[in-house]
Automatic annotation (TrEMBL), chain A:
<keyword id="KW-1133">Transmembrane helix</keyword>
<feature type="transmembrane region" description="Helical">
    <location>
        <begin position="28"/>
        <end position="50"/>
    </location>
</feature>
<feature type="transmembrane region" description="Helical">
    <location>
        <begin position="257"/>
        <end position="278"/>
    </location>
</feature>
<dbReference type="GO" id="GO:0055085">
    <property type="term" value="P:transmembrane transport"/>
</dbReference>
<keyword id="KW-0813">Transport</keyword>
<feature type="transmembrane region" description="Helical">
    <location>
        <begin position="131"/>
        <end position="164"/>
    </location>
</feature>
<comment type="similarity">
    <text>Belongs to the binding-protein-dependent transport system permease family.</text>
</comment>
UniProtKB/TrEMBL annotation, chain B:
<feature type="domain" description="ABC transporter">
    <location>
        <begin position="2"/>
        <end position="246"/>
    </location>
</feature>
<dbReference type="InterPro" id="IPR003439">
    <property type="entry name" value="ABC_transporter-like_ATP-bd"/>
</dbReference>
<dbReference type="Pfam" id="PF00005">
    <property type="entry name" value="ABC_tran"/>
</dbReference>
<keyword id="KW-0472">Membrane</keyword>
<dbReference type="InterPro" id="IPR003593">
    <property type="entry name" value="AAA+_ATPase"/>
</dbReference>
<protein>
    <submittedName>
        <fullName>Peptide/nickel transport system ATP-binding protein</fullName>
    </submittedName>
</protein>
<dbReference type="InterPro" id="IPR027417">
    <property type="entry name" value="P-loop_NTPase"/>
</dbReference>
From TrEMBL, chain C:
<comment type="similarity">
    <text>Belongs to the ABC transporter superfamily.</text>
</comment>
<feature type="domain" description="ABC transporter">
    <location>
        <begin position="3"/>
        <end position="229"/>
    </location>
</feature>
<dbReference type="GO" id="GO:0055085">
    <property type="term" value="P:transmembrane transport"/>
</dbReference>
<dbReference type="GO" id="GO:0005524">
    <property type="term" value="F:ATP binding"/>
</dbReference>
<dbReference type="InterPro" id="IPR017871">
    <property type="entry name" value="ABC_transporter-like_CS"/>
</dbReference>
<keyword id="KW-0547">Nucleotide-binding</keyword>
<keyword id="KW-0813">Transport</keyword>
Amino acid sequence: MTAGKDGVMASAEAVPLRRWLPRVPDRFAALGAVLLVLVVLSAILAPWLAPYPMGELRPLEQLRPPSGAHWFGTDQVGRDVFSQILYGGRTSLFIAVAVLGVSAVVGVTLGVVAGYAGGWLRDVIMRVTDVFLAFPALLLSLAMAVVLQPSVNTVVLAIAVTWWPWYTRLAASMAASIATRSYVDAARCLGVPAPLIILRHVLPNSLTPVLVQLSLDAGGVILTSAALSYLGLGAQEPTAEWGLMVQQGQTLFTTNWWVVTFPGLAILVTAFAFNVLGEGLRNALDPRSGTARVVK
Amino acid sequence: MIEVRDLRVRYGGRLVADVPELDVGAGECVAIVGESGSGKSTTLLSLLGLTPDAEISGQVRVCGVEVLTASPRRLREIRGARVALVMQSPQAALSPATRLGVLMRRALKLHGVGNGSAKGSAEIMAEAVAAVMLDPEILTRYPHEVSGGQAQRFALALAIALGAEVILADEPTSALDVTVQAEVVGVLRRLRAERGLALLLVSHDLALVSTIADRVLVMKDGAVVESGPAARVLAEPRHPYTRELLEAVLSVPGASL
Amino acid sequence: MILRAERVTLGYGRRPVVHEVTLDITEGGVGLIGESGSGKTTLARAFLGLLTPMSGNIWYGDQTLKKADLRKFRKDVQPVFQAEALDPRMRIGTSIAEALPRGSRPGAKQRVAELLEQVGLDPGLAARRPHQLSGGQRQRVVIARALAVDPRLLILDEPTSALDVTVQARILDLLASLDAERLLITHNLAVVERLCRTSHVLFAGRVVESGPTRDLLANPAHPYTRALRDAVPRLGGPPPEATGRAEAVPAGTGCPFRLRCPLAVPECERAPEPRDVESRQVACHRAEDVLAGASGGPVT
């Protein structure tokens, strides 16, 4: 009750909705969005923005430090690091989008079905999900990448296999709660078939947290794919990829820091941007989380 | 205990509550009646300075403290200790993993009641729990283990233990079953009569209000449309809206008692 | 009589919350009165075919609901839930159109407009979303959607309890004006009195008293019905009565109300069978004493 007196308002009627929304636009989220737009644009526009073509070797310009001609310097085979990062962004973003796309489609589909149907169907789906969750994600990805040929597609497959169960869980718990809403009962009483109920009511109303989770996860996927590439199990030459770049430059860190540092920074900035954007989305879409609700 | 003059609460320039006069003395019960959006809850919250985004003008004195100009420290002194706020669903405001007894003891300590001695606070707690007609055993339970009516009475017990002189209650019974509501109302009446507590009640239920309040303020769209002694307002409503509210009260046949 | 529950036991998982309830939905409106935890909403869900009884049967005409033609049943029986029974993301028009039979799409817009007018709303609201409407308007939309299939029976689950009193009065007028039969689930005695000729009082998953609403409220034969009635505050009346220990948990055997009952006697350790007393059925050993106005008695 002490908390109540200090003012956590339980009465919805009196408190204007305005108060539950972030008072100032979330500055971190805005920063994340701006960074992300920059990253995506630079990846899309890489062929026009990059001062040098992808993978162009300049044997005479090996390991040059950052300069006017090479903003981020060059690597041990004379490639322009800045250009490689722009092109590498395409790979990394493709991996993120592909992994999350596959995971979300598979995971959410299974999840809403499990959550809405309940009973034995739910049990079967959730047990299968649990089996996948029981494997350590990175280890499973590693094993898959070893068995299959290392490539960008392998990375996508390997990460997606360990990623989708989280979406199943999330969607299932959302769908289970939506399934008890009276508008779903009303639809059932109208004889609307279950698949239509899921499609019309359960799915759209379960998507908000999934959306938030997607943007929170994007950074994680990029980090994981970078880790796989770093271990030599992901993207292969001549594909430009950030993780691969870090791996190839790792021995040079003490002598030629720029070869490793800039791709590392690219990974960090992108992951960070996705994360703060996700946090911002979560706060904006779910007024009950975060600090927006506490009135002081 | 409560004196309000020309209180105006605005959100973003929009006037949501306009109360020219509101007084509640010790042992009195005043009710603010209105429907959603009438500004009744906003009025109540502004008495504790709990409307942070609002532009407020006027004069609000609660337990001798000028609320609108008081320092945050001064406000904290009256909040919780001398003035208790009782909400519609108190369970939501109780920390779920803490036994009610522990919670009450902490609150006493925080406000320096019972001189910090375990024996002193135990006595105060036992007395407060008895005053709201709860079994002392309730103190060993967790918030989710008590019913809505018990939680509401515990909130009142906490107020008594902390030595509250004023109780501000926002729809304290509208989430409760009628038989439970009757008990909570009974407790409120007793506290008022035996301890001289000042009670400001916000409610949409005119019938309920008529059984407990001395005076009534009827609010609509932020304005007080009628106020006066409860008996007079109910018997000879002067404002058409009060009449509409009275007519909307459905009666249950069968004289009680 | 469209629906009938026969010794229906209902529950979630293995725990029953409604015990062997027998109840006819007769003409003139039927009220199901109970407080939270009484099992009234669970019973309503069974009548809607949303919950299968653990034992006993719901009869639809001369067939049990398990065997009945569900398509026909869905057209005959429709729910009116509280105002939040609208998909927050759907436009009002789409929500209502969902109720229209498939294949009637061309005339759907016209029909939606008619339905909105029938419940006293501006047809222009069809393009809005639920959060843009007031509580009373939303409740009318919920009613309009139920009416779309022209049902014979409406199952109303607390249709006005979230509304302001002046709005509630208008919604009750609307409900009273509809042709369909009614089963009304509520804790509000005044609303039952307004809409239902017959009522059943539910306590701890059992029907404790059934009969004409007027008799039931004017002169209750079960101590719980009386406690319920006396707890309702009246305009200018005395403070509401709190009888018995309201928080006591009903025991597994014997009369479920005996721990709260001011009239309880040792005999109440034995569960009372429902029996006819004057115009109603009561499950209470001391029904005659209650009718005679007894208020005290040994409290166990």
